[in-house]
Amino acid sequence: MILDGILPFARLLIEKTVSHSNYFVDATAGNGHDTLFLAKLAGEDGHVFAFDVQEQAVQHTADRIGQAGFPSRVSLFHAGHEQAQNRIPEHYHGQLNAAIFNLGYLPKSDKSIVTKPSTTIEAIRQLFHMLKPGGLIVLVIYHGHEGGAEERNAVVQYAAQLDQQQAHVMQYSFINQVNTPPFIIAIEKRPEA
Ligand SMILES: C[S@@+](CC[C@H](N)C(=O)[O-])C[C@H]1O[C@@H](n2cnc3c(N)ncnc32)[C@H](O)[C@@H]1O
């Protein structure tokens, strides 16, 4: 396939933010796949801040990062991403290259624990301010579950009203797929914002 799938495209976008200093946020750590991807991308001098509200997710992520040998590259918070501004040390505010969100529930886990419109939007708001100029927020939006459509609508509406002088906002989706496929909203902080 020539067109990138949703998850590869999300990673491609994040890779484009790599520069001399590399600080990333995994806003929904889950089983830690993205946290590990970001830890590798961050390199020895970079850092990743990862959040999840589920103890099990935090443990799985810690195990994955530990086994890969990168525990010092990751600060893992058993906390909601809406705590980003409080939890990420002030030194990094305005320095973040990118943040990724995978909205929805953790596969093979408690499907009642899902990301929620108000906390997701609050986290996007905080993280946008904490991005460096040219930084990026990538939202992978799963919306087939209960409450998913409400969150999708709220997040898309929020992203669409961002001032175009401050942010480039795009949507990447396969419009002929069945069964509510995930799609991407990417928010790039304009260099001059
Ligand atoms: C789709 S899963 C993430 C999958 C993950 N990226 C991976 O690679 O396995 C969504 C995750 O968001 C978490 N979550 C729900 N509300 C949250 C919040 N307010 N802050 C941070 N994480 C949250 C859930 O516990 C769940 O693990």
Task: Walk me through what this model shows.
Helix 3 links the parallel strand 2 and strand 3. The chain has 6 helices and 7 strands, in the order H-E-H-E-H-E-H-E-H-E-H-E-E. Helix 5 packs parallel to helix 6. The protein starts with 5 loop residues before the first helix and ends with a strand. A 7-stranded mixed β-sheet has the order 3-2-1-4-5-7-6, with helices on both faces. By secondary structure, it is α/β, with parallel strands linked by helices. It is globular, with a radius of gyration of 16 Å. S-adenosylmethionine binds next to helix 2 and strand 2.
Average of pLDDT: 97
Question: What is the strand arrangement across the widest sheet?
Answer: 3-2-1-4-5-7-6
Count of individual beta strands: 7
- Bound heterogens, unique: S-adenosylmethionine
Radius of gyration, Cα only, in angstroms?
A: 16 Å
Q: What structural class do you assign from the helix and strand content?
A: alpha/beta
Largest sheet: 7 strands, mixed
Residues in β-strands, percent: 15-25%
Give the overall form. globular
Percentage of helical residues? 25-40%
- Low-confidence blocks of residues: none
Work out the helix count.
6
- The termini sit apart by 36 Å
* SSE series: HEHEHEHEHEHEE
